[in-house]
Amino acid sequence: MYKADIGVFGGTGFYSFLEAKEIIVETPYGATSDKIALAEVEGKKVAFLPRHGKDHRYPPSKINYRANIWAFKKLGVKYIISPCAAGSLQPHIKPGDIVILDQIFDATKSRVYTFFEGPITTHVSFANPYNEYLRNLFIEKAKKLGLSFHEKGTVVVIEGPRFSTKAESKFYSKMGFEVINMTQMPEAILAREMQIPFAGVALITDYDVGLEGHPEIEPVSHKVAIENFIKNQEKMKELILEVIKDIDLTREEPEHRALENARFEIESINLI
User: Fold this and answer.
1) Active-site residues: which are they?
2) How many helices (DSSP H) and strands (DSSP E) are in the chain?
3) How are the residues of the chain apportioned to helix, strand and coil, as percentages rounded to the nearest 5?
4) What's the pLDDT tens digit per position in 177-230?
5) pLDDT of residue 148
6) CB-neighbour burial class of residue 3 (10 A; exposed 0-12, middle 13-18, buried 19+)
7) Is residue 205 part of a domain?
8) Which domain CATH number covers 183?
9) Residue 86: exposed, middle, or buried by beta-carbon count in 10 A (0-12, 13-18, 19+)?
10) For residues 247 and 157, what is the distance between their CA atoms, to the nearest angstrom?
11) Is 269 inside any structural domain?
12) What pLDDT does 195 receive?
């Protein structure tokens, strides 16, 4: 009955100014994080879903990622935009900056990562987790809006809900990762399995546990992260809406065919 062209993991701040209708989408994996709001942006139907729930009831490790992605697929979503809060692991990436993610390092431990649990084995290519067409659109629009942003960055995804220790953060920084977050996985791989191109855009809220050689920078706290996210979320919202306006829904992206040749099927086995 209901359809959407684009899915956005964002709360009421993203659609409060739009005429939106909230719906419930039932899934085989249980309830989504909250009701899904359907609205129209420049003639495109957009589905907005707060991944943590409107009242932030779900910590990162307890989000029903499969239900959320499956619901977008059921609505017919062709592209997913995944904004997230993140900490910086490098001095040149500052709070308030936006990072258009291009790679993921997964350090989570206990999440469900697949829709395909047998009996047919499915191996989905994931070398490039973020869709290049969407990434280039974000770069173009970030330049147009004059934002302080970075064209690429690797996000290391941790289990949460706790923040990192200094030892962990130092390791991730030394490895050259740019930002740290708790929700990009398994969101990104589940979108790939549902053959939906996916874009991750990080809003930097803090310097994780601080920076070596900069004792004046305090380790991240939930209070600081939330304050910085609220202070800077308007530019993230403006950027996402600009991108939505220019998304070409007629394009065919590699992710739309992600399951081609991904399944290992044997019609018959002859034992001698």
Assistant:
1) 206, 208
2) 6, 13
3) 30, 20, 50
4) 999 999 999 999 999 999 999 999 999 999 987 766 666 666 767 777 677 777
5) 96
6) exposed
7) yes
8) 3.40.50.1580
9) buried
10) 27
11) no
12) 98
Query: What is the Cα Rg of the chain in Å?
Result: 19
Q: Domain tally for the chain?
A: 1
Task: Please state the φ and ψ torsions of residue 174, each to the nearest 5 degrees.
Answer: -65, -30
pLDDT at 268: 45
Residue 269 has pLDDT above 60, yes or no: no
Q: How far is CA 74 from CA 3, 113, 248, 249, in A?
A: 8, 19, 20, 17
Q: Is the pTM of this model over 0.85?
A: yes
- Cβ atoms of 6 and 44 closer than 8 Å: yes
Q: Is residue 224 part of a domain?
A: yes
In a domain, 266, yes or no: no
Domain extent at residue 65: 6-261
Token look-up 């592209």 returns: 79
Q: Are 101 and 202 in contact (CB under 8 A)?
A: yes
Tokens of 53: 């729930």
